[in-house]
Design brief:
Layout lengths: L2 E4 L5 H14 L11 H13 L4 E6 L2 E9 L12 E6 L8 H7 L6
Antiparallel strand pairs: 1-2, 2-3, 3-4
Length: 109
């Protein structure tokens, strides 16, 4: 069973690897090129500084998924909305990791 915990800067390389699996096979992220660790690190630092939740799913010490929640858009009309971001390692898909991340109490932060 996966455990959930807040993400740390040390998780960024694993987050990038999982994210890039998705970039390679679908259009959900709208990215067409793999992301780099420095790019995701800047994103991580910005989200963390803003107090936005970033959550890791881990199995046997290995990151198998991650999720974050933050503002959807900066316009005033979107002020009551948020964007959910969720990625699961291909080796852990179908095991309930995504559901666990989405149901987490961290989402209410």
């Amino acid at each position: 069973m996966p455990i959930l915990r807040p993400a740390t800067a040390q998780d960024v390389p694993a987050m990038v690897a999982i994210y890039n699996q998705s970039v390679a096979v679908n259009t959900a992220s709208w990215d067409t090129e793999p992301q780099t660790v420095p790019e995701r690190r800047a994103w991580f630092e910005e989200r963390s500084a803003a107090g936005q939740a970033i959550l890791i799913a881990e199995v046997a010490g290995r990151v198998v998924g991650w999720a974050s929640w933050g503002p959807f858009r900066g316009k005033a009309g979107y002020r009551m909305t948020r964007e959910d971001t969720l990625y699961v390692d291909e080796s852990a898909r179908g095991l309930g990791v995504g559901r666990l991340l989405l149901r987490s109490e961290e989402r209410r932060v």
